[in-house]
Hints:
The protein is an alpha/beta fold. The chain has a single domain, classed as Rossmann fold, CATH 3.40.50. The chain contains 8 helices and 7 strands; from the N terminus they run βαβαβαβαβαβαααβ. It has helices at 17-28, 40-50, 64-78, 105-132, 163-183, 204-207, 210-219, 233-240; strands at residues 9-13, 32-37, 54-58, 83-86, 142-147, 188-195, 251-254. Strand 5 (142-147), helix 5 and strand 6 form a beta-alpha-beta unit. The protein is globular. The N and C termini lie far apart (37 Å).
Amino acid sequence: MTDRFRAKVVLVTGSTGIAAAAARALSAEGARVFVVSRSAEHVAELVRELEPECDGRAADLTQEDEVESAVAEAVQQHGRIDGVYNVAGISARKFGDGPLHELTLEAWQTSLAANVTSQMLVCRAAIRQMLAQEPATNGQRGAILNMSSVLSRHPSPEFFSTHAYAAGKGAVESLSRSAAAYYASHGIRVNVIAPALVATPMSARAQTNEQIIDFVARKQPLVGGALTPEDLVGTALFLLSDDARAVTGQVIDVDAGWSLSDP
Length: 263
């Protein structure tokens, strides 16, 4: 471990899976981590595990006032925000996400709210704070890392035909590139990480289906199955750190070969 994040404040959305793995790694490298998630129970569990390096609160990230309040609390406690890792999101399959001809309006609206609007609201609040704070010694004001999915550009119709989810992740990528271009001159970097299937609570359906398990083992040959949340940590921390001070507007696939494989 290094001290890359010593004295830096990083806001992480989500409190299990990918978000929890990142929070652990960030705190181990010296960051003050502020976790925001819908589940008060999961936030409390993660804070207890990582305190005093971690604190946070529960919030519905699809609601403007709750996002603004959460970011304000992080700034009140720590004085600034140096990084944001936008992990929180959902699968809207239970609401009717699927192929376009079967897609329900409820699934479309629910998916976009949870996977796009939430990230926009967090980015907006964080960028307003970053613009208002003094730059770090390297002249930069902050780094944002948004969460996409390999499905936004490398669809897999046999088992993963959730079109609202894919459309939302594509929107995240477009928003991130536009923001990266605009805010580069202000010393704010915006990048995206796009994982393939990761073993998290959200992917429980896939992890219990023998056909999908076999498919993913061949689709992600570098790991022979689902990625672990820890497989994303190295890329995420690099993009949030000063090591990536010259990197912005990029979408980085962490997919174990998904985009190159054709089972």
